[in-house]
Amino acid sequence: MNKELEHNFVELLEKHQNIVHKVCRLYTNNYDAHNDLFQEITIQLWRAYPKFRGDAKFSTWMYRVGLNTAITLYRKSKRTINTQDFEGVAFKMKAEEYDDTQEQQLKVLYQAVHQLNDIEKALVFLYLEDKDYREISETLGISEVNARVKMNRIKTKLKTILNP
Amino acid sequence: MDELDLLKKDWNQSSNSHKVSARSIYAMLHKKSSSIVKTLFYISIAELVFWILINVLPTFFSKSYNEQLDLVFTNKTVLTLINVFTYAIILLFIYLLFKAHKAISVTDNAKKLMQSILKTRKIIKYYVLYNLIVLFISVIIGLYFGIEHSPEVSDKLTNASSSEILVFYGICVIMVVFFTLCFWLFYKLLYGLLLKRLNQNYRELKKLEV
After folding, report:
1. Which keywords describe this protein according to UniProt (chain A) (predicted)?
2. In this model, does residue A55 exceed pLDDT 60?
């Protein structure tokens, strides 16, 4: 691979790395695992990069490779041990923007999302990223109707977890 | 407000707690992948090599094996045909595996990616199954000719009582069942562990289509 390609890739990934972090945040629950998955996604992105066509948005392309790696390709590394709680890498809202009940509710919500299975997490992730059902269905390989139905079921599931 | 909308608000406002530097990204590019596709690739190679060795080694190194072969196949053309067929099958599987591995693309949609991986695994499965069947047939033929052409064995069998013959065949069956079980368990463990998550997720995706 030539240096220029490598340079362009690193520049793009550095700029858009938040997408990868968000995937890692959903699919892992400690710092080591987060870094491990981040590395694997980076490797997969880099391998696929020579075939990346400029006509698709780099970020859109990243969603697909990132999710595919998390759901399908990633094999948990042996060095990943659950030592640190997920909260350690959690993203926090600014203090003035939430009250105690909302903070508590968010915490429970994040925990609830973590209890979902891999496919449900992928749907939630794309939903949180403001993707429409067409893109969700194209990324996962299911029909738009099914994506919508599943998303509604997930919402109900989360509601039940939050208000038992 | 919808629960997920509340989450969305927080999600989009969140800032990243650990930013990875360009330097670290450069370093990651040269690290080795630990993806299941890579492991599956190595397993395919190992399967190919293992069964090729099982097929080929005895003919190269065992004199008695070759003598046995001569005994069974008095007609050289049949032996040559079998050899050509064996190598053709191996080449066919190498081609199919190569094609299947090339078809695995991380930029496909999730379902298609899973299907490509499962297809590759299926080709390996058929390859192993083919070899096990060939091995099974060879053992049967070997046993048959061993019994027929070895004066020692056939003498013993002629003099043996029916219960002794029953025990002999019983032991043969138990051995075959035992080795088949061992193989089955080995492959179940190997692929079961490797593809457990993929199978779960694939089932989940399929369930959505029902």
Report:
1. Sigma factor, Transcription, Transcription regulation
2. yes
CATH T-level topology, domain A92-164: Arc Repressor Mutant, subunit A (1.10.10)
Domain chopping of chain A, boundaries: 1-86, 92-164
pLDDT at B194 over 80: yes
Angle at A94 between CA A159 and CA A41, to 5 degrees: 70
How many Å apart are CA B2 and CA A26, to the nearest integer?
20
Q: Which fold has domain A1-86?
A: Rna Polymerase Sigma Factor; Chain: A (1.10.1740)
Average pLDDT of the segment spanning B163-187? 87
The region, left, alpha or beta by phi > 0 then psi within -120 to 50, assigned to residue B58 is: alpha
| Mean pLDDT for chain B overall | 86
Please report, as a single letter, which amino acid is at residue B33.
S
Residues 6+ apart with CB under 8 A from A70: A23, A24, A26, A27, A37, A41, A118, A122
Q: At A83, which amino acid appears?
A: T
For residues B48 and B94, the answer to whether their CB atoms sit within 8 Å is: yes
Which of A93, A139, A158 is facing B4, going by the closest CB pair?
Answer: A158
- Candidate from B11, B111, B200 with C-beta closest to A140: B111
pLDDT at B39: 92
pLDDT confidence band for B169 (50 / 70 / 90): confident
- Count of CB atoms situated within 10 Å of the CB of B168: 15
Tell me how far CA of residue A144 lies from CA of B164, B190, B204, in angstroms. 68, 36, 16
Note whether B17 contacts A127, CB cutoff 8 Å.
Answer: no
Inter-chain touch B35–A44, beta carbons under 8 Å: yes
**Does the distance separating the beta carbons of A72 and B198 come in below 8 Å?**
yes
d(CA B163, CA A79): 58
DSSP calls for chain A:
--HHHHHHHHHHHHHHHHHHHHHHHHH--SHHHHHHHHHHHHHHHHHHGGG--TTS-HHHHHHHHHHHIIIII----TT----S-GGGG-----GGG--HHHHHHHHHHHHHHHHS-HHHHHHHHHHHTT--HHHHHHHHTS-HHHHHHHHHHHHHHHHHHH--
